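Task: sequence design from structure.
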C-alpha cells in the first residue's frame, strides 16, 4: 500500500492538513473537513466499518459522515481543516497494533484502513467524554486532530491522564477510569464537578497522545456569556 504524501501546516494552534494525492489515489475524509481542492478531485459520500454502515452514524450526539476523495486523471492537492483549533498527528498503521482515537478526532485515512467503534459504557459516560472511541486497524495512513497541541508520550508501565486530555493511544495499552481526590460516584451522578476528578490509568507498553488543552473548561467559561431569552 503506497503512502499518501502530506504536510501539516500552521501547527500546533491552527493546524491544517494538505494531502498530495497521486493520480487515481483515494482518501477517506471526515465530512466538512475539506477546505479547498484541485478540480481533478472528485468527492462522493461513503461510510464503512461497524456502525459506519448505512447513511451515517451518531457518536455521542455528533453526526459522523465520511467523504471519499479521488484524484482522477492527474495528481491533486486537498486541504483539510479540523473543526476546532488545534494540532494534527499522522499515524502509520502496519497491522502490528490498532489505534484508539476519540470519536471527534478523526480527519482522514487511507481506504485500506478499517474504522470501527468501541463502546465504553459507563466509563465514557462518567468521564464527560463521548461514549465512543474509534478503532483504526489494518494498514495505511491515519490522521487525527486535537484541541490544542498534541503531545506524544511513550508509556512503559503505568501512566495517568485526566480524561479530558486524551486524544489517542495504541491498543497495546490497557486502560481503566479511576476517581481521584476523594470523589464519590454520588457526586458525579448528581453532576457536581461535571466529571472533574476522573483520570485514566494506562498500563503496558505503547504510545499515548494527549492534548495541551481541555475543551470542557472553555465551554464552562463561555456558558455564562451565552445569550438567553428573557421572559
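Answer:
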Amino acid at each position: 500500500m503506497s503512502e499518501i504524501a502530506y504536510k501539516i501546516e500552521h501547527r500546533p494552534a491552527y493546524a491544517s492538513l494538505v494531502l498530495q494525492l497521486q493520480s487515481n489515489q483515494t482518501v477517506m475524509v471526515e465530512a466538512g473537513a475539506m477546505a479547498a481542492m484541485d478540480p481533478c478531485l472528485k468527492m462522493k459520500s461513503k461510510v464503512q466499518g461497524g456502525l459506519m454502515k448505512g447513511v451515517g452514524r451518531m457518536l455521542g450526539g455528533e453526526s459522523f459522515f465520511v467523504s471519499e476523495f479521488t484524484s482522477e486523471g492527474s495528481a491533486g492537492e486537498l486541504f483539510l481543516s479540523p473543526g476546532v483549533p488545534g494540532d494534527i498527528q499522522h499515524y502509520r498503521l502496519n497491522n502490528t497494533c490498532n489505534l484508539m482515537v476519540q470519536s471527534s478526532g478523526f480527519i482522514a485515512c487511507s481506504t485500506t484502513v478499517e474504522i470501527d467503534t468501541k463502546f465504553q459504557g459507563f466509563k465514557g459516560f462518567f468521564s464527560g467524554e463521548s461514549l465512543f472511541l474509534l478503532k483504526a486497524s489494518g494498514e495505511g495512513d491515519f490522521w487525527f486532530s486535537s484541541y490544542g497541541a498534541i503531545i506524544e508520550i511513550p508509556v512503559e508501565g503505568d501512566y495517568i491522564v485526566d480524561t479530558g486530555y486524551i486524544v489517542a493511544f495504541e491498543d497495546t495499552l490497557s486502560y481503566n477510569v479511576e476517581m481521584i481526590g476523594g470523589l464519590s460516584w454520588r457526586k458525579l451522578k448528581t453532576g457536581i464537578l461535571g466529571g472533574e476528578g476522573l483520570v485514566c490509568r494506562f498500563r503496558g507498553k505503547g504510545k499515548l497522545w494527549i492534548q495541551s488543552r481541555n475543551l470542557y473548561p472553555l465551554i464552562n467559561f463561555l456558558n455564562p456569556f451565552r445569550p438567553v431569552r428573557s421572559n
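The chain has three helices and 18 strands.
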